[in-house]
From TrEMBL:
Stored PANTHER family: ALDOSE-1-EPIMERASE, GALACTOSE MUTAROTASE
Name the record gives this protein: Aldose 1-epimerase family protein
Pfam family, one: Aldose_epim
InterPro entries reported in the protein's UniProt record: Aldose_1/G6P_1-epimerase (IPR008183), Gal_mutarotase_sf_dom (IPR011013), GH-type_carb-bd (IPR014718), YihR-like (IPR037480)
CDD domains noted in UniProt: Aldose_epim_Ec_YihR
Top-level taxon of origin: Bacteria
């Protein structure tokens, strides 16, 4: 007898609720599918019966952003990753974005999902990765923990890909604040990292909140100005003063900002991608802030999305 799989295209759904906050986590990619406060969207959502648009809301590991040409060397060995961004010929956003993660624990306001990075061509290392999503009065906290049970050290980095929503309208209508003094310049066509530059007197300078307008950004920022509590916050606000923010600590010395420009006007600039990262693009080659997970070691990093 034939049976029909009733699982939504985006995977098993886990709904979290605490106070005014609700969230839905989809198992494919351990993805934040929506986050709301009093029915106001804080991130760009998508439907459970929809294949996730690109990496919207997904966990990015064991590297964020791009490995240029998918090539890198580690501990004297050369590796070639699959080119998962074929239009630019790079390996993008790690190996777990389209994996169906397994439930490891659940409560009304939290869920823990797990997945394994299997040794494979281009990344011959085993990692066990968990992500914990937890709601409380202060918003949604995401914590990613990776452990290396294998016999050799592994290169590692992590991030996630939420698109923040300030309110009505598009990115153009919102005010952005990014407390960072440097930006990583990239080539126009393939977004290959070049050099760090000072944001001062450039269109990348959002240290003081200002209207985004028609500014295009798809760049990694660093030189983060952390507050007295050792955290930094990237925020977007609508004209009514309401908005959404993502707060992270020194575990993320980089943050990727993207105005989400798309060829189709119907889906372009719907939200502001703000991705706290443990390392910059192409860290597998540059070595900048690259985490090396020794056998038996683990690493955790996290951030919090909240309403303003």
């Amino acid at each position: 007898m034939k049976t029909t799989d009733s699982t939504p295209l985006s995977g098993t759904q886990y709904t979290l609720q605490h106070g005014a906050y609700t969230a839905s986590i989809a198992s494919v990619g351990a993805t934040l599918r929506y986050l709301r406060r009093n029915d106001r969207d804080l991130v760009v959502p998508y439907d459970a019966e929809e294949i996730r648009p690109s990496f919207r809301g997904a966990v990015l590991a064991p590297w964020p952003n791009r490995v240029v040409d998918g090539k890198y060397s580690f501990n004297g060995a050369a590796h070639q990753l699959a080119l998962t961004e074929p239009q630019r010929s790079h390996a993008i956003h790690g190996l777990l974005g389209w994996v169906d993660w397994t439930l490891a624990g659940q409560a009304p306001a939290s869920v823990r999902l797990s997945a394994s990075v299997i040794p494979q061509k281009g990344y011959p290392f085993r990692l066990e990765v968990e992500v914990l999503y937890s709601l409380d009065d202060s918003g949604l906290t995401t914590t990613i923990t990776a452990a290396n049970p294998g016999p050799s050290a592994a290169p590692y980095g992590a991030s996630a890909h939420p698109y923040l929503v300030a309110g009505e309208g598009l990115v153009d209508d919102w005010t952005l604040e990014v407390p960072a003094s440097s930006v990583l310049q990239v080539t126009e066509d393939r977004l290959i990292p070049m050099e760090l530059t000072d944001v001062a007197s450039s269109h990348f300078d959002f240290r003081e909140p200002r209207l985004i307008g028609d500014t295009f950004v798809d760049h990694a920022y660093t030189g983060i100005n952390y507050d007295d509590d050792a955290t930094a916050t990237v925020s977007v606000r609508a004209s009514d003063g309401k908005g959404t923010a993502i707060t992270f600590d020194r575990g993320c010395p980089w943050v990727q900002i993207h105005t989400a420009d798309k060829p189709d006007p119907a889906v372009s600039r719907l939200g502001l991608a703000a991705e706290p990262m443990t390392c910059p693009p192409d860290a597998f080659n540059s070595g900048t802030d690259l985490i090396v997970l020794e056998p038996g070691a683990s690493h955790s990093v996290g951030w919090r999305i909240h309403a303003l």
